[in-house]
Each structure stands twice: as C-alpha cells, then as structure tokens.
Write a structure and sequence with these properties.
The chain is an alpha+beta fold. The protein has six domains: 72 residues, Cathepsin D, subunit A, domain 1 (Beta Barrel); 257 residues, Alpha-Beta Plaits; 221 residues, Alpha-Beta Plaits; 141 residues, Nucleotidyltransferase, domain 5, CATH 3.30.420; 83 residues, Endonuclease III, domain 1 (Orthogonal Bundle), CATH 1.10.340; 103 residues, Nucleotidyltransferase, domain 5 (2-Layer Sandwich), CATH 3.30.420. 33% of the residues lie in helices and 23% in strands. The chain has a five-stranded mixed beta sheet with strand order 22-21-20-23-24. A five-stranded mixed beta sheet has the order 29-28-27-30-31, sandwiched between helices. A hairpin with a 2-residue loop joins strand 13 and strand 14. Helix 26 crosses helix 28. The longest helix has 20 residues. About 4% of the residues have low confidence.
C-alpha cells in the first residue's frame, strides 16, 4: 500500500481510502503499470476511467445487452476469485504425462477423454426434499454479454446432447452465470442456486475433514496415485420430480429453444451435492477397499489418492481402481491424473517421502496479500493463513493481535502489534517445515507449553533416533481458564492440545511432556478454582493411563523453542502455589479469630413493596447497632449485601475484626472471586463485564484495612437462640426497618427560570387581537388587556415562554401548570395545547416518567360454550431464541383454558393462517370465533382473507390485560 489516499463520495457518505503501489497488470491486451484504489466495502470490483483508458475499452449498448471490447474489438472480461482459491492462479501447468496414453488405451471406460460422460450404474435417482410450506422461487436471468453467451453455448449444446440438460416448464427459476476459466478465453456455465438452497432440507454433511484426512496415510507408503473424477456430480441421476427445482432460462435461436432448461443429473452449486456424491462413491468403492488391504485409498468427494509401499503395488492398485471405476460408471480426468509418483499434489498439499509440505502456490497466495485495511480483510487473511497453521509454530500466539483487530463494535485500528504479527506470519510461512505423516502404529509425543494466555504444542513421532514433527498446534485459552493461577493454566492448555491432537492420532498412545506436574494437581485438585463439571472433564480426558502417559520435562521443549537451563531442582511445588493464591489476602480467615477485638454482623435488605423496591444496610454487634443507612430505591439484593460488608471493613481499620454475613454472594466475592477477578479482570465466565463493579472494587480494596480479618458465613433467618443467630437477626431487622426511610438526595442546580417581570409593552399578534375581540374585556393599561375576571391576557408567544420557564424549574404536568397560571391571574390563548406540548417535548420528563397509556374502551369478550369453538390468539417473543425460533404463537381456548403454543421464526399473518390450518382445524374442527389483540399479524390481508374464506368471526381486542393473560397462561404451561 502507498501513502496516497483519496476521498470517495458514495451513497453512504464520504470516506478516505488508500491506493496501492504501482503494480504490473496483465490486461489480456498487454501489460501496464497501474495503481488501484482499495475500497473493501465495494460489493464488486469497479474499473475506473483511468484503467479503462489504458485498456482502450469501448462500451456498446445493444439489444442483447451491453458489450465491452478493447480498441481492436476483442471482448474484455474480469476474473474474480477468493483469497482461498487465488493460489490456483500461481500453479504451474504440469507437463503432460507421456505414459497416460497407455492407460487410456487399456482402460478406455475409466477416462473422460475416451469414455465420455459417466453415469453411476448402481445408484438410484436422487430425490431432493423441499422444506414444508416453501413456495417456488423465481429469479430472473441476469443480462449476459454476447461474448460470454457465445462462450457457454457449446457447453449447453454438449450437455443437451448428453442428456444432462432437457427442456422443461417449471415454476422454479434461477439465473445462469457465465464464468471465465483462468488463463483462457473459454467460459463455463455456473448456476446461482442460493435461493434454491435456502428452501431445500438440510442433510448432515459427512464429507471428510481435510485437516485430519491425511492422518490415515502410513508414512512408509511413499508411492502415490492421484485421480480427479471428471464432472463427478453429473454421474448421479436426479429424480424427475426434483428436476424442476433447478430450472433456468435459456434462449438459443440456433436450436429453436426459448424457454427453460433443467438438469437430469445432480447439479453443481447445490448445497447437498458434495455430501450425496461422497457417500455414493464411498459405498461403491467399499468392495475395492476390501480386496486391496495393502493399499490405502483416501477419498475427498471426487479426489482420490492411492498410497502403496512399492511402485509395483501402486501400479497394480491403480489398474484395479481404473477397472473398478469404469465398471461402476465413473470417469477420471486424464489431464489431471498423477499415476504412480513418489511426489504428488493432493488437496493443496505436496506429498513426498512420507511427509507433507505446503505447495509453493499456496505460500505465494498468502505472501502476496496486502496489508488489511478493514476488519473483513483481516478475517480473510486469518482464514487463508489459518489453513497453514499446522506448519506455523505458535500460530495462535502470533495471530493474537490480529484477532483483537477483528472484534466487533469497535472501529478498525491497525496497530504496530498487528503489523508485526502480520509480517511474522508471512515470515514463518517462508520457513515452513515438512511435517511427517502420522504413523498410528507408533506412539506420539506431545510437548505442551503456555504463554500469554495461549496454549502451544508440538506433536512428534520418533524416526530412528530423532523426533520428527507431525503438527504444530496452538489455541487461545478461554476467559474462565485465563482467570486461574499459572499452575492451572497448563492444565487447560494440555486439555486443549490433547483434544486437537486426538483429531490426528486416531486415539493412539500419547505421551505428554509439560513444564508442570499437572498429574498430581488433577488427582488432588484445588477446591475453589474449577467447577465440578470442568474438573470431571479434565480428569476423564487426561487421567487415562491406558492411552495418555505424562513424562518428566526435557532440557529442550519444542513447544516453547527455548531450553530449560535448570532442571535439577523444581522451580516450585504446584500444590503450594495454589494454596497461596486462593484469595486476595493470604491471612483472610473463614473461621472466627481467637484473638478478635470486634465481632460484627452485616446484612443488606432489598424487597419490593407496592411496586417499589426498597433497600437498606446495617452493621450491628450482638446487642447494638453500629451503622445503618437506607439505600437508594431500586438497589439490588447483591449490591445491598456488598455495601455493609465494605463499610464494616472500613470502620474496623487497624483492628482485629471478625465479620459475620449470611450472604453467600458477599462471602464468595471476598474469599474466592476476588482472586479470580485479579487474574482474569472484572469479567464473567463469558468474557462480559461483571455487575456491581464499583462495589466489588471497593470491597477488594477494603479487605486490606483491618489488621487481622475473618469473614465468616452464617445461616440466615434463624431463631435468635445463639449469640451468632441473635446478631444476624438484629442486623436483618435493622436493615429491613431502615429501608423505607428517606435516603440521601443529591441537590440539583436548577436552571435560571428567566425574568420575573412582564415587559413594559405587550407584543400581541394579529391572531391574538382577533381572539381578544371575542372576549369581554374590562380595561387596557399600558397596552396590556384584562378580562372581566381581572386576568391579564398574555400574547401566545410570551405565554409559551412562561410555561417553558415554569416547567424547566418544576417539571410539573400540564394540568398543574394551567392551575398555576390561573391562580396568578393570567390568561393565555390555547393554553391547554401549549402546556401539553411543553410537557411532551421535555426530554427529562420522557426519561423519568412512565409512558402514558392510552385508555381504550373495554371490549366484550364472549366465552365459548364448548371446547374448540372460541379461541384467543397472540404472539409473544422468546428470549433467547434458538435455531431461529424467536416467537411463540399462543392459542387459548376460552371455555376450558387449554393452551396451544407453537414456536415460530416470524410474526406474520401467513404463519397464523398456517398454524390454524395445520394444527387447530385437524384436531378441534372449525372455530366459531377467533379473537386477537389487533396486532399486525392479525389485521394483515392474508389473515383477513383466510377468516373470510373459512368462516370464523374475526374480532379484535385492545385490552392489555388480555395480552398479559395469554402470555401468562402460555408460560404456566411450560410452552
């Protein structure tokens, strides 16, 4: 990126964007040097006037659509690829295999070049299931350049001749897109099936994970064959009833076609095609696997890999596989075949000598990614680099600043740390090592370390006397584990790394080396840091002597890439360290001090009385009150417990103090959570800011004030028969009694209401004078007029100012201000409207006063005479929603009170009508009446049309109590 920037004025405003440096660009008509303006928010690449000038572009508007050509009338097109696929542009074209001709002659049915289009002979036609209630989707065909249409026409003709396409009439239609192939002038047809995919039932994807697929390869099998099936999805037939879903519009005067075409085979772009084909091919090749146990066959959708120990075995296995594919009806591509090689490329990896490498094209793609200018570009870089994370030691630690830059709800900020991480990841790719293929017949070694909240590990296996790396693993610790002491961080790090390693080692023996003795800590765990569920998970995962063995540390830990200079003596004892960091203050006791000077009891009370929450706090001894204070209305119970405990520690400064509290929240905050907050920050387990932050900080600070301290938990609400129960009872009663007392109020500085005297002469408008002419006036003094009741008539403009001054000072309501004006012997035109307008537009009143509820006339709701004839219906919102269901449609039978509730994704009239037709009518018959609260879903045209057609009376209810009753009834049923 260069330092040059430009302001861009778009639909969303004006923003500054940077330029790239001068780069060599291949325009197809020649190479030029050009600088691009980088606009990440642009939905598609735009060609500016400067680049169009260099291309000599000419735009022709024709009936078939716009046509863009260069100065020599040659068509111009643009290829757009994702960062993940850009490496394909850098791949070098492999020279043709001279031996492929013999394979084509011996097995003509197995190759697409000699056998034509394949058709699986033993597979039934595939039926595609549409989601219930789905309407057909119709998307018009996009305008297509003439050059692109001519480019895909031969492919359409070929597919029509092969029977893959046929003419049809369908209510479904999606557009066809011509995509230009890289480094060629040829086009291929690609159908935009996104809208169809949204309306088709999902199936569980069973396609293998390429992250773990190569773990099934044995390192000693170093002869490979790679086959790529040609037009693989077209090998599976599509059921006739499902073919109409994938129709598209096509016009071809040459063949007399002007209508729709659809697919008779499994189409590309359909979301379930990879899973359906992968399962079908895997089942068909099952017999081949059983007949060749000495060969490893890997399948990733339509990419096949054979691995054998010797070239002879590999050749024999390839011959048998070619014969099997031909018999089954599948054809491979001869141009992409890699037959019996010691070095092949498979799934973007280079396989050679029992090791896997990153291909040069993959590295080049990531190294050419420019510095990100937005959060989205950072995510794209992390996605591309994350594919190579097995080759980058400590990737999670390196990428930590980049992940910080992707956080939402904050402006994009590219810091120096992010730039350093960006360059370090690129540098690490340049020196990416070769990784050994996992050998499941040998034990694995896992070296684990933790640094800066990131778990790091190196998975290795012995190759003779040396250890060869299999994978570099790294992952950030969760926010809960980040709040533990350092000796527990390594437990969480080990668990994370063992889980990731299990994906590669297939459950084989694993030997773990860590810098801490975590096995002993897990067998005698700390009692206050981990939850029982997490502890049980760690023990079940790591304490498995049949599979996992913990070894002593070594002098060189590959996970940290730093030698350990002092292994003769342990740095520390983990159990002692955990015992020391269990709380904020080391001498804090949870039992009474034997030499205590003061014994106090604290309690906070918070309760609701007549719709108002009252709160109070108290500190007492066994017999007398030490401190008591009412708390502001609305104070929560937890906050009310923290305040008196903090006050007791402040009053007991430099004393030996024993404090009793019946609050588990306050007790745990002082003894347990304080140390966690100190390590993790004031965050919850989900990483969100804790409640009562200020009170907790004050309590943690006050813990250090007493000379000696014990905070003891005692049961609450006990009979006062013991000294502890009597002290706690006194504190509880005192805090409850003081809660209703007036709390301290802060004095507010009221604004200046303005001048107190009327001006010398009035400024009546023409409207004021016309209005006064209709009134019986008494006298005129200095231009001021008074009526027969001695009320001075104010101009309407001055009257508004007087009302605003009164309301700004007192915030009285409209009626009260009118009374004040009347008692002050003033009269204002339109005073009611002015007073109402002033109070309504007051921001302070809107924030503090309850919103006025419009009073409506009470309706008459009839009760049914038998079940199922009279229903009341309403929507309520589900919080939090799951799986897209955010609303609950509730039906209540007014005769029996029976409730029917259905979760829905939308609050629309179509949903209401559908549920009545599918759920109510089949079970209860036609209702006589249906009542609602006049919501949008019940007054829309579809629902009104439904009620008119099927007969039930349509009624609206505006009473709020009916809505609350429906929601309350539905919640009581557990719906």
């Amino acid at each position: 990126m260069s330092k040059k920037t430009s302001w861009v004025h778009g639909a969303t405003g004006i923003k500054k964007y940077p330029w790239t440096t001068q780069r060599t660009v291949d325009l197809g008509t020649g190479k030029v040097s050009h600088s691009f303006l980088v606009i990440p928010e642009s939905p598609c690449p735009l060609l500016g006037r400067d680049l169009l000038t260099k291309m000599g572009a000419q735009i022709h508007f024709e009936p078939e659509g716009p046509k863009i050509t260069d100065s020599q009338n040659r068509p111009i097109s643009i290829l757009t690829v994702t960062l993940e696929d850009e490496y394909r542009l850098h791949q070098e074209q492999k020279p043709p295999d001279q031996e492929i001709d013999s394979w084509l002659q011996r097995f003509p049915e197995a190759w697409a070049e000699t056998g034509g289009l394949g058709l699986a002979k033993h597979r039934p036609a595939i039926f595609v299931e549409v989601k219930p209630g789905t309407d057909p989707v119709r998307v018009r065909q996009y305008p297509m350049p003439l050059e692109a249409r001519e480019g895909i026409t031969p492919h359409i003709h070929r597919l029509l001749d092969q029977g893959v396409l046929r003419a049809c009439h369908s209510s479904w239609n999606t557009p066809l897109l011509p995509v230009r192939k890289p480094n060629s002038t040829d086009y291929r047809p690609v159908q935009d099936l996104r809208e169809v995919n949204k309306r088709v039932m999902d199936i569980h994807p069973t396609v293998p994970n390429p992250y773990t697929l190569l773990s099934a390869l044995h390192p000693e099998k170093q002869w490979y064959t790679v086959l790529d099936l040609k037009d693989a999805f077209f090998s599976l037939p599509l059921a006739p009833k499902s073919q109409g879903l994938f129709a598209f519009q096509w016009t071809d005067p040459e063949r007399g076609i002007n209508g729709q075409l659809t697919w008779t085979r499994l189409p590309q772009g359909f979301k379930n095609s990879p899973t359906l084909f992968d399962e079908a091919l895997d089942e068909d090749l099952g017999e081949y696997r059983r007949q060749h146990p000495e060969i490893t066959l890997l399948q990733y959708v339509d990419d096949l890999l054979i691995a054998a120990r010797s070239p002879e075995t590999c050749v024999q296995g390839t011959e048998d596989l070619s014969k099997t594919l031909g018999e089954l009806g599948y054809q491979a591509s001869a141009t992409k075949a890699q037959i019996c090689k010691s070095e092949v490329t498979y799934l973007g990896y280079l396989l050679k000598g029992g090791q896997r490498w990153l291909t040069k094209a993959r590295k080049e793609t990531i190294l050419h990614i420019p510095r990100p200018q937005s959060t989205r570009q950072v995510r794209e870089f992390l996605g591309s680099a994350g594919f190579c994370r097995l080759w980058i030691p400590g990737f999670a630690e390196l990428a930590k600043p980049l992940y910080q830059a992707t956080k939402e709800r904050q402006p994009f900020n590219w810091t120096e740390e992010a730039e350093l991480a960006f360059q370090q990841i690129k540098t690490a790719l340049l020196s990416a090592p070769a990784l050994g293929l996992p050998d499941v017949s040998k034990p694995f070694h896992l070296y684990v370390d933790e640094s800066k909240g990131v778990a790091k590990a190196v998975l290795t296996q012995y190759l003779g006397p040396w250890q060869r790396p299999v994978a570099y693993l790294s992952k950030k610790l969760d926010s809960v584990a980040a709040g533990w002491p350092p000796c527990l961080w390594i437990i969480a790090a080990t668990a994370l790394m063992v889980r990731d390693a299990d994906k590669l080692i297939m459950g084989q023996e694993l030997r773990v080396i860590t810098p801490h003795a975590i096995e002993g800590v897990l067998q005698q765990p700390p009692d206050r840091w981990m939850s029982n569920a997490r502890l049980t998970h760690y023990q079940g995962l790591l304490l498995n002597p049949l599979r996992i063995t913990f070894l002593p540390p070594t002098s060189l830990n590959p996970a940290s890439l730093l030698p350990n200079p002092d292994l003769d003596a342990p740095f520390h004892e983990c159990t002692e360290i955990l015992a020391q960091v269990h709380g904020v203050r080391e001498d804090l006791q949870d039992c009474p001090l034997p030499d205590t000077e003061l014994i106090w009891f604290t309690d906070g009370s918070s309760y609701v009385h007549q719709g108002q929450r009252y709160a109070g706090a108290a500190i007492t001894s066994e017999t007398e009150v030490i401190w008591v204070e009412p708390l502001p209305p609305g104070t929560s119970a937890q906050r009310a417990e923290l305040i008196p405990l903090t006050q007791a520690l402040t009053l007991g400064a430099e004393k030996k103090l024993t404090v009793y509290t019946d609050s588990r929240y306050a007790f745990a905050t002082a003894h347990i959570h304080g140390a966690i907050y100190r390590e993790r920050g004031l965050l919850t387990a989900e990483g969100k800011e804790i409640k009562n932050k200020q009170e907790i900080l004050a309590l943690l600070t006050a813990l250090w004030k007493p000379k000696k301290l014990a905070i003891v938990h005692c049961p609450g609400h006990q009979k006062p028969t013991t000294p502890i129960a009597r002290g706690n009872f006194l504190a509880d009663q005192t805090s409850r009694s003081i809660a209703k007392a007036p709390s301290q109020l802060l004095a507010l500085q009221l604004p200046d209401p303005g001048p107190r005297n009327l001006p010398c002469f009035p400024d009546y408008t023409e409207q004021d004078r016309e209005w006064m002419d209709t009134l019986p006036l008494k006298q005129v003094k200095n231009g001021w007029r008074t009526d027969i009741n001695d009320q001075t008539i104010l101009p309407e403009k001055l009257g508004r100012q007087v009302l605003e001054h009164i309301h700004r000072t007192t915030h009285l309501g409209a009626r009260r201000m009118i009374d004040l004006i009347r008692h002050a012997k003033f009269r204002i035109r339109h005073i009611a409207e002015l007073a109402s307008d002033v109070t309504t537009n007051c921001k302070a009143c809107q924030l503090n006063n309850a919103c006025p509820q419009t009073q409506t006339a009470a309706g008459i709701r009839c009760r049914g005479t038998r079940p199922g004839i009279y229903w009341e219906i309403d929507f309520t919102e589900i919080k939090p929603g799951k799986y897209g269901y955010q609303y609950l449609l509730v039906f209540v039978d007014t005769f029996s009170g029976w409730t029917e509730a259905f979760p829905t994704k939308r609050e629309t009239a179509q949903v209401v009508a559908k549920k009545i037709l599918e759920e109510i009518l089949p079970r209860y018959g036609f209702p006589v009446q249906i009542g609602s609260d006049n919501g949008p879903a019940f007054v829309a045209k579809p629902y009104r049309k439904f009620t008119r057609k099927f007969g039930p009376d349509y009624e609206n209810c505006t009473r709020q109590d009916l809505r609350r009753r429906l929601i309350h009834s539905s919640r009581e049923t557990g719906s």
